[in-house]
Amino acid sequence: DGITLEKVRDYVWEIPQEGDMNVPARVLASEELLDEISEDKTLQQLKNATHLPGVRKYAVCMPDGHQGYGFPVGGVAGIDAENGCISPGAVGYDINCGVRMMTTNLTYDDLRGREEELVDALFANVPSGLGGGGVYEGSMDDVEAILDRGMEWALEEGFAVPEDLEHCEDEGVRPDSDPSKVSQKAKDRGKNQVGSLGSGNHFLEVQRVTDVYREDVAADFGLEPDQIVVLIHCGSRGLGHQVCTDYLREIEQAHSGLLSQLPDKELAAAPAGSQLAEDYYGAMCAAINFAWVNRQLIMHRTREVFEKVFDRSWEAMEMDLLYDVAHNIAKKETHEVEDGEEREVYVHRKGATRAFPAGRPEVPPAYRDVGQPILIPGSMGAGSYVLRGGEESLTETFGSTAHGAGRLMSRTQAKQEFWGGDVQDDLREGQQVYVKAQSGATVAEEAPGVYKDVDEVVRVSDALGIGDRVARTFPVCNIKG
Ligand code: 5GP
Ligand code: MN
Ligand code: MN
Question: Is 300 designated active site?
Answer without folding.
Answer: no
